[in-house]
User: Fold these one by one.
Assistant:
Number 1:
Amino acid sequence: MKTMKNKQVSGAEALLRALLDEGVETVFGYPGGTIMPLYDELYDYRDRLYHILVRHEQGAVHAAEGYARTSGKVGVCFATAGPGATNLVTGIADASMDSTPIVCITAQVARDNLGTNFFQEADTLGITNPITKWSYEITQADEVAEIIAKAFYIARSGRPGPVVVSITRDAQAGRTTYEHKPFTPAPAPAKPGCTDARLDEAAALMNAAERPMIIVGQGVTISGVEERVRALAEGGNIPVVSTLLGISAFPTDHPLFCGNVGMHGNYAPNMMTQQADLIVAVGMRFSDRVTGNPAAYAPLAKIVHIEIDRAEIGKTVRADVPLVGDAGEIIGALVPRIKHRERGEWLRFIEGHRRTERENVSTRALDCTDGGISMAATVDAVARHGGGDALVVTDVGQHQMFAALYSRFSQPRSWITSGGLGTMGFGLPAAIGAKVAAPGRDVVLFVGDGGIQMSIQELGTIMQSDIAVKIVLLNNGFLGMVRQWQEMFFDRRYSFTQLANPDFLQIAGAYGIKSRRVEKRRDLESSIAEMFGHVGPYLLEVAVEREENVFPMVPAGASLDDVLMKKNE
Amino acid sequence: METKEFLLVASVNNRVAVLNKVTAAFLKRHINIESLSVSESPVDGVSSMVISAHTTEETMRRLTAHLDSVYDVVHAAYYHSEDLVHQELALYKIEARSGGDVLRSLPRRDKGRVIERNDDYIIVEKSGSRAQLESLRQTLESRKVLEGYSRSGNVVIHKDRTEDLREDARLSLAV
């Protein structure tokens, strides 16, 4: 390629070159007036930068999230000034909560117009500052190279997160000489890391524990240390459970894997938490959805907390042995210190509770003897067809929890969901991003009839860019999770949770997406097989039981001991 | 939970939006900032920020840990007020006609320094703890001679250099 050194280019072109130098291949975006100089340059870069035109900026940012979490790379989206930028806010907050590395490029009015309430002027930095890892407004073309390199470094380093780079219109049009400038951070004050003494202490606890467990969080996936965690678990014969975001970091069919912890986690992992004498938490933050009442959390356990973000240590629950740093390095140092132990009694305790869930929850949830279809049965059927290899994306609600409970995974980076922020509307665009990042994999989206209507316009993106997402629409005519809570905790007062829905097949058809509706259990398997067999996008609408509830469930603020297996317990 | 006054001392990169990032951390936890001062530090490109606020120690610990992980915050630590020598500066605008008599009647330690005087007013500068500065304000108000009052945020210096790293030291013991 011809060198660009000393050649004058526009700020917009410098920005595109900087993206290429950061390894960006795909951008999700939506043009508008103020970002036109950038889109004009993009016209000449179509062969090098794959731009996917979304239908709403929120779709762009969620797609960038799905892309980032599938690929492990930084996701990128473009939006114009004002409403374009403000439409990104939900996705930026989502990425912040779930530590997703994205760089959002937004346009801004010209520098001389800043602060004048100019057309489509919004205080993008002020609005997004509390929910970004870092942000910057470029006002001169000469800043582009340094700032873009810095933005990518910050987005992907340490605990990843969202970065916003706003660029004024005059900076896009201004001239500069572009030269790639890899970002080198300034030396930071030394902070206490993970000492050998602490590693020895953690290993001694693991070797001495009678009832240990490992909790894998998303940090395991971010650090790409799934194999090391597996070596740690197998080395010590230690059972493993997952947080909602840690799902797929450990194979679900592994003999040591026991399920998911938390509010809608499995029964055994929550009971394990309350009986364990040692918890080794890897790359997770003990969110309220994981701990329930933190004062009653894991009363018998010592806690070894492996976490890169020092701020998470001791934030909600105590850390008896905090190990601050990269999970890969820490676990790599722990593995040789761990001794194999027989844990027959502990493993029998776990198996007993797994059997209890199967007998009291799963069998009932999967039972469709009346001919109807449950959400659990749908997820289970998709999991059987997918064979653990499908990449599962969800929206937010009951279907999300059923998908977490009944999906199976054999490889990492196979589960993408909105955890911390719980963003309805996330699923469809995130699935688009996931499929773009992993075109060779089956990407299945589980979404409810409420959630899909929050971003249904992205079917247009699927149509235009021919993105072969398999959409499993679980339609119960309700905002199901809210309805379940209304049923259980608000005396069945179904306040504004029933939905009058459109004909989803007609909508899919209007976008040229093949679709089918299934209402009977006997048709479920064949329809799923048809969906997987179809080349291209597919929408399978499953008419599920209207008032199905998702269990197990720990009521908000309750102890994990108080898990419910059915309603009215 | 017992609340008390804490001083948060942060070294931050001197750039747009850092102050917003820091104050957002207080806003998120509904903590009112009692005083705030930002000044150059001895290190090029790094500013020193001192914020006083009333809250619980646990909240302050979490807030400080949060700020310490913010990209443009080089270092953050919190202190009890007794851990630091901290001073504020106040300017008092005093009515000239009877204000002079009032000033002369004050004990020496309360007087401050006259930095401007004319037929209309006297400007007095005084440094000290917030309590000392407020005490003088109340005295001048009660004597009905105070026309204007302005107080800075804290400037601080550590009594013991090792205290500078107290929060890190605490963590290093734990890590």
Number 2:
Amino acid sequence: MTLPGDPPTSTPESPEVSPTPAPALRFLDPRVRLLWRLSTGIRAVVWTAGVAALEHWGGDHLPLPASVPPGALTTAVAVWWILILLLVPGIRYRRWRYALRDADLWIRRGILVHRVSVIPYRRLQFVDTRQGPLERWLGLTELVVHTAAPGTSGLIPGLEAEEAESLRERLARFAPEADDEGA
Amino acid sequence: MTEGAPGSSLLPTPEAPGRLPWAVAVLEGRNLLLGLAGIALVAGDAFRWWALGLGLVFVGRLIRLRLTLWWVTDESFVIQRGLLFRSRRVISRARIQAVDLERGLLHRLLGVTEVRVEALGGASTEGALPGVAPEQASALRAELLLRKPKPPRDDALVPVQTAAPVTGTGEASDRARENAQQAEAPVAGAGEEGPIVGAGEETVRGGGEGAPGEGVDEENLEGEEVLRLPGGEVVVAGLTESRLGAGLAVVGVGFEAVRQGAFSGWFGDPESWAPVMAALPWVALLVGFTILVLLFSLVLSFVLTVLGYWGFTLRRRGDVLAVERGLLTQHRETVPLRRIQAVRVVENPFRRLMGLAAVTVVVGGRVDARNRRSGTNVLLPVGSRDRAFALAAQVSGWAPPEAPLREPPLPEEGKARPRTIEDPGHPIPHLHPMPPGARARRRVRGLVFGLLVAWVAPALRHGPSALLPWSWTGSQGGLALGAGLLALLVGLALAEGAWRGLGWAFLGTHAAFREGILERVTTLVPLARLQSVEVVSNPFQRRRGLATLTVPVARPPLEEDPRALDLGQEEAEGLRDRILAGGGGHAAGPAGLSRTPRSGMFVC
């Protein structure tokens, strides 16, 4: 399956372009959907509870028309979050892919704003892995690669913990080796 | 290659990671006390609760500090933080730019040293250890800096070591240069402590021995003069500065409009203004004062520009550009060519009318507040378009060294200048326009602007009750129509200008992007400098098959990355792949390397 924005399986006609092998596009670990649903769920509960509390105790002071029935605001917020909870994690999982190509890391993500980032390994400065409580429970890890550019966004969430570690080691090793040609 | 250094046994390993000593709790405690003192001043009765909260934060910080682990491997320096939200940062040794040790008074009392491991990338310190035993800190510094597995030598990565002849080891010669310059210009150097290195990085670098052979020619301490701006051109620069021009235009138009009585009757019933009329002398005074302040600030801006750029001289010493400027305060700034991430040719509306442009550069490196003075990155305050582009092309390494720089090429009478991509000797790159979809997007914006004005105009005249279009009277509708049409015309004209302002070109080793409605900015990026490539599209862009290509470079945080706005989606992807193939994406491809200029400008 090829999608718009996928890395090319063959390169442009220019002879100088070294052939880029078709990258194996990888999905994130499927459990990341559960992770996103849980974390979104927590946020949904907090938000809804907050709005409910506001409406309950501070409802008189809200600048709402009198025609709005009590509880409408809370309901609207709850419905909004339920929609997000149902839609977003699934779509985000389907959109978010990455590929380890010969010379660069290729990441595609974004639901409304589509973003494809290609980060050459030799540009990597340092690599972070992050793990919250939910991630630990699920055995997932988030990997962030940094280059010297503040504008680079190299985030791969939902990697299997061991894979993330090995990937990080590999990426961290890449940089100095690729540097030799400079001299 | 990792044996033999004394003290490496002091360093923690992955098996036995290092922890921060409890002494850092005192360092944290200092912040707590400061916070408490601040709260005590303002909080009053609630002090207890605030103190409790702060105490909890403090305990949390302590736990976090205590859970901070660090160690060193053969390849990298690792810091792990946190209990619940655990993060681990791996900084490859070859990427470490500096290891700064700091001991304040409190640190000394506690017998610890603060360690800051700097890499490129983050805006702040990449690896910070607030307190480490001093001998361990020294060992860490020695280990990380002096025994790198392989020294990085990558011009695209803003190397610090290679700049050392100018900044670090060249201290003595810097002095000499300083003296030489002072001898020539007696005022020079007063109050300045040596050349300001563009965008920072003067911290002492271990491993900064510097490559020999890149040193400055001692015979030619001054460097070759590349250009000098005559006083008249500096005045032109001041006069055409966009702030000044725009300000003058606003003042002029406003003044004329008021004089013509354009606004009489615009502000509703004259009776409602009675109190204002009663206080008229005051109002007039206030208005007059405002205008005076505005004028004064404009004159001041002009004077400051002229003073700041007086005697603007651009020189080069080896691979370093040096700018001298200023009448009262003399500025001397240096910009190593290797740190130039992108070059911009800026044409504001007034300068465009006169065929003038300015050149600025985006300089990479660690951000240092002291060096972020305004004007640090200006290589040409104002000059003819040809000269600006010639300078930009050379500074970015696109044009070969023999391309004209001091004497811009004069167009032959009646002949159009040949503009081809294949001819890098010509300084002005020929840019491709963006697809028609990009124009359509801008026209939609113009339309929206027109509709908005049409909607709001009656309300501006008759108050908020006129915000509902179905309640408009005939005259209000007419007003909406007239204002809307006028705004639509302006909007469409701007849309056309905005679209014409867009452009892109792939120049083999470089890429050129242009955007801007009134002020056009052409950015020339050496592709060897790119850090990654991004193709981004939002729903509006996708609807028209467009995407934006961004080339993140090692810029200071407040600068913007070079980008090609609203390219066709396929163009963007093709350009991305060509950039990656040719511009340094491939690690060691000989083709890629040979096509990468090594700041070839000025190589004699």
Number 3:
Amino acid sequence: MNKNRKVFQTEKLNELQQQQKRAFLIFPAIMVVLLIWGGPVTIAELHKDSFVSEMLCLVLLLAFCSAMIGIVPFYMRYIRLQGQKKQVLENSSFITVNNLEYYRDKLEGITPGAISMLEDLHIEQDKDLTACILRYEMLGLIRQTEKTYEKINEAAVKKLYLQESDWYLLKHLEKDDWNRELVIMDCTFLLLFFFPVLYMKFGQGRIQEQSPYKRTEKGEIYAEYIYGMKNFIHDYSNLNEAQKDALVLWDDYLIYAVLLEENKRIVEDIMKRRERI
Amino acid sequence: MMFLIIGIIAAAVMIGLFVVKGYNGLVVLKNRVANQAAQIDVQLKRRADLIPNIVETTKGYAHYERETLDSVTKLRTQILFTDNIEASYQASEQLGKLFGQIIAVGEQYPDLKANTNFLQLQQELSETEDRISKARQFYNDMATKYNDAIMVFPNSIIAKLFGFHRVTLLEIKESEAKNVKINADTFHI
């Protein structure tokens, strides 16, 4: 059997790839600063007879100086991001057996938390909690009230085979004491220019640390189906634009869209609501 | 003069690349619409395949009019052997109604209601109905994406040049937009 690896294109991975591209902007940024700093004086000194060639030399000189000044911070940032990307890639990649590109059926026998874990071996509180809330609403276990969520079908709750994590969440949703992780804006990028050594030690925060978990053989198989589902939702639907009301029409697929980072709107709505309460 | 020629060539190359990119994008979307339409057809045929089993299971208990059974056979053949998705879809709509009648009649017989085979087929039928409904929703989403893509500028020019036409959306039945009911036995996510 042909076994190769596939990678979930997660939001974290996209973010890191974007940051790596942006790291190249260090050079033009330095060029602009140099140009503003000494440009007008130098241009005034150029001879009119050979203006074009002298201007060209000036640009080349600027490029060279920018490269010299920027190479160390660029390299340090790039290497740092590369290390993080490697970690994210390691967490988000799985072995594919069937080379499945799309999977259209519902993912039977697997909870939202497990789907999220199998995607990148991490739980992301906001989206995973949102997905759980949607799922409980879909199953008719809870109902959104003005202030919180209430259990509406005790009998169904008892009859369903819920996992420990489900009971935990149900309890806390009812008590209304679930809370969000604090997100601290990362400004350590500035350290790069002034204290590069400190940046290497503390900078940029750890976007994703090494997960203590590993996919089992069964987990790898599920991961492939989840990967297929993510691609399917991405390529074949407009679920990224769907709102919470669409749950009655899309049921499980809307939950997958939230879990697999294909719909941020609902996560934001539910989390904003939480902030308002 | 030379700069002008180079400029014209560069512009032509840019336009060419842009047309190729736009055309390829539209082809991908068009193929996805066709693929999703085929998925609906697969599910309709799957439902049609369930019919002989259901009729066979219920026949021993309930009595149906000859006309009903003939219509079922005719519609099933139409679904299984037609290449026209629209015709297959219409036949399937009618068959769905007949199916409902057969199940409703069957449910009046307690012995049949307790029959494991009947219950299993009923469950399978319900799952297939759900799949058909979802396949249609995905088709509509895909068709909307495609229709949007061929209407926005500058893709609209490429669409006109290469004959990409709008596709019709399928109507979602009212019953498909109903509230999801709690069913503890079908807990599956």
